[in-house]
Automatic annotation (TrEMBL):
Residues 34-57 have a biased composition (Low complexity). It is found in: Nucleus, Nucleolus. InterPro entries: RRP8, RRP8_N, SAM-dependent_MTases_sf. Residues 1-57 are annotated as: Disordered. Keywords: Chromatin regulator, Methyltransferase, Nucleus, Repressor, rRNA processing, S-adenosyl-L-methionine, Transcription, Transcription regulation, Transferase. GO terms for biological process: chromatin organization; methylation; rRNA processing. This is Ribosomal RNA-processing protein 8. Residues 7-20 have a biased composition (Basic residues). It is an enzyme of class 2 (transferase). Its EC number is 2.1.1.-.
Length: 280
């Protein structure tokens, strides 16, 4: 083989090698392309799945909201259609239902133009801070946190160390030991009269009884009680009606004072219809 032939063979081999390299570069470029295609298609897919997960999470949120709304209405109906001791057992079995009830209740209240609790808090602030208060069915005990008075807070479940968990027809308070008894939307049980009897027991003579209740429960045109029959029954229990406030769209306020002397009477209590919330 001549020198020229050897060089030419080398050139060919090197060319092939170089060509191989270019092929592999091209392949790797293609690989990159395909990687970037994969990347962009996976980015598209993930953005698609992100928007998919966004819509599925908003769907889930909607479903959760619906479910907790349904739970709230179910618990609410239960509380209005059973006695206080049945309600106590109900929450003892599953205390988490109390949170479900209260978040649904807060949601309902956020739609009310005015809160009855605020009116009662204002009333207390306008009177002596020395008055001892019992808040029957206190919920989250906002009333106790909002005033300077000594407040005994009662509810079926204690979510705060200051709240005494009990059925409010049977509180641990001594007889004639408080100046103000408050029921803010809490006359829920079918035995609501026994809560008022308990308030009567713990109130001092001349003590105040303040009741805020949902207006629809006192609308005789829709099956509600006659407000006058309710007032009459409480007066027969041993109170004087001081005033009634019908000015609010959503609730009525009743102000009573405990009489100095009490006569026992057979009281005819009106029925208070449940306050059931509609699904929105
Ligand atoms: C509609 S919420 C009102 C809560 C609070 N008073 C407010 O205005 O925000 C009624 C409360 O009364 C309580 N309740 C109903 N029946 C009760 C009973 N027998 N004994 C103690 N609490 C009771 C419920 O658990 C609930 O927290």
């Amino acid at each position: 083989m001549t020198e020229e032939q050897r060089r030419s063979r080398k050139r060919k081999r090197g060319g092939r090698r170089h060509g191989g390299k270019s092929i592999s570069r091209a392949a790797s470029a293609k690989d990159n392309e395909s990687t970037s295609v994969t990347a962009s298609s996976s980015a598209a897919a993930s953005s698609k799945s992100r928007s998919g997960s966004k819509s599925s999470s908003s769907f889930l949120d909607k479903m959760k909201a619906r479910l907790s709304g349904s739970y709230f209405r179910m618990i609410n109906e239960k509380l209005y259609t059973c006695t206080g001791d049945e309600a106590l057992d109900y929450f003892k079995e599953d205390p988490s239902l109390f949170n479900v009830y209260h978040s649904g209740y807060q949601e309902q209240m956020s739609r009310w133009p005015e809160q009855p609790n605020d009116i009662i808090i204002k009333w207390l602030k306008d009177h002596s801070p020395a008055l001892i208060v019992a808040d029957f069915g206190c919920g989250d005990a906002r009333l106790a946190r909002s005033v300077k008075n000594k407040v005994f807070s009662f509810d079926l479940v204690s979510k705060d160390a200051s709240v005494i968990a009990c059925d409010m027809s049977n509180t641990p308070l001594n007889s004639s030991s408080v100046d103000v008894a408050v029921f803010c939307l809490s006359l829920m049980g079918t035995n609501f009269s026994s809560y008022l009897l308990e308030a009567n027991r713990v109130l001092k003579p001349n003590g105040w009884l303040l009741i805020a209740e949902v207006k629809s429960r006192f609308d005789p045109t829709t099956g509600g009680a006659e407000p006058d029959k309710f007032v009459k029954a409480i007066c027969e229990l041993g109170f004087t009606s001081i005033s009634k406030d019908f000015s609010n769209k959503m609730f009525i306020l009743f102000y009573f004072k405990k009489k100095e002397k009490q006569k026992s009477k057979d009281i005819k209590w009106p029925e208070l219809k449940p306050c059931l919330y509609k699904r929105r």
